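Researcher: Hi, I'm a grad student and pretty new to this. My advisor asked me to get structures for two proteins we've been looking at. I'm not sure of the right format, so I'll just paste the first sequence and hope you can take it from there.
Model: That works fine. Here's the first sequence with its structure tokens right after it:
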Amino acid sequence: MRAMLQQNLALAERHIAEGEIRITRQREMIAELERDGHDTTAAQGLLAVFQHTMALYVADRERLQNELGQC
């Protein structure tokens, strides 16, 4: 049980790290689009999806950390 929780925690950490990269890249893309005078509506929408997904990853990590603390 503990080993599985640790594996899932490592996966959640990887998802968070990858998500941070996606969010940073998306913000950079939005800034570039704005600088060039383009509409950023779709890019902003995608950023919102990335941020929501990140919140889920963080919540999952916290849950796993709590479960590990109880083992």
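Researcher: Oh nice, that was easy. Here's the second one.
Model: And its structure:
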Amino acid sequence: MNVPLTPEMEKVVNEKLSSGRYQTAAQVLAEALRVLQERDADQERKLADLRRDLQHATDQLERGEYWEYDADTIKQLGEEVKTAGIEGLAKEPKPGTR
């Protein structure tokens, strides 16, 4: 198979060859394809995880496992989060102490 390369792609291949890490242009392109396959597989895993999480959230909604907030309760939630954060920071050691 012959694949034409743009001048920019050819420059990248030549730079990789000049580095000494690769012996042939075919090795450079094989590595590029391997990295592309890894990236595609990683994206597929992330998409599957997202779909699973979305289904889990949808199931929780359907079972009524959620809280509704209004102006008062959202303010209360904010205060609880703030208090928990302040308490968490207070437990951390101070710089220079142990």
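Researcher: Is there anything I should tell my advisor about the second?
Model: You could mention this: Residues 7-66 form one domain.
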